[in-house]
What we know:
alpha/beta, Rossmann fold, 2 domains, binds S-adenosylmethionine
Amino acid sequence: MAEDAGHGTGHVERPGGHVPVMLERVLELLAPAFTGPDPVVVDANLGLGGHAEALLAAHPRLHLVGIDRDPAAIAWSAERLARFGERVTIARAVSDELPDVLAAAGRPRVNGALFDLGVSSPQLDEPGRGFAYSYDAPLDMRMDPEQDLTAEYVVNTYAPRELTRILRDYGEERFAPRVAALIAKERAKEPITSTKRLADLVRSAIPAATRRTGGNPAKRTFQALRIEVNGELTALEQALPAALDALTLGGRVVVLAYHSLEDRLTKRVLTARTRDDSPRGLPVLPEAHQPRFRLVTRGAELPDDTEVTRNPRAASARLRAAERIREG
Ligand SMILES: C[S@@+](CC[C@H](N)C(=O)[O-])C[C@H]1O[C@@H](n2cnc3c(N)ncnc32)[C@H](O)[C@@H]1O
């Protein structure tokens, strides 16, 4: 499933107007990890600080370390969380820098970790950032505006074979070779610099019969480019194991993924850590082979219909959680 980057309201939401996804469930899953004297949580996708605010309000002794790579998100969440004073440490960083951020905050071990992956509502809603195919904007898609790599660079310079791989692997686009070939042909005439031109191009590369089903055909291409530009899966691949390593005994991680690639990666990492890998046939399982974690959720949990009606962007959410049950 691809995340929907099409529907924007046109205005930039400010702290308070944004609805954190599966909030009650996130609070419920993390609460048992915060029963000790001075619990710490790391929020690896601070965004507008919605989940962070609710966690801090629910646990008066909780310290929160919040990470985001987007300076706008840092500014909004800093304002929103200001009332919690020294209970909050905010870092502008990529989530795979999580161990360094925790070390710098003087809190290398944490009781909870939250990943609310992907883009935030303001990133999608601000036309100029180029994430949404429904606005005509420069092809940008950077979460961190100071980063060099943009969607325009990817679209105009990557070899067709590389573009095909990205569209297929990150967008699950069946027609990846056709879309990549048309991009290569059109960019030779004139560089592709706008979201609208790209969206129109994708539409014409997809067979008419397929175009009639499955929503906007540009959805998968835009998702793929966004993942490539921001190295999203690479960051998660490192950040999630790092967060698991940082968890204390009884500590919990909750991951909210918004497309199947993120969810599959999350599942793979959590399954590897919760599996018993002891050699078969032993009468007693050696401690060293026993799993350090257990799954707290059965499969992926979905938002309920009421939430999806209220907040359509929650529709693609998939939640998984795990708990540390052994040190080591
Ligand atoms: C869905 S929003 C989080 C919303 C937040 N939970 C709230 O309640 O307001 C995801 C945020 O994660 C940030 N982000 C995505 N990938 C990141 C990464 N690898 N490192 C740091 N921040 C990242 C984005 O900039 C965005 O602000």
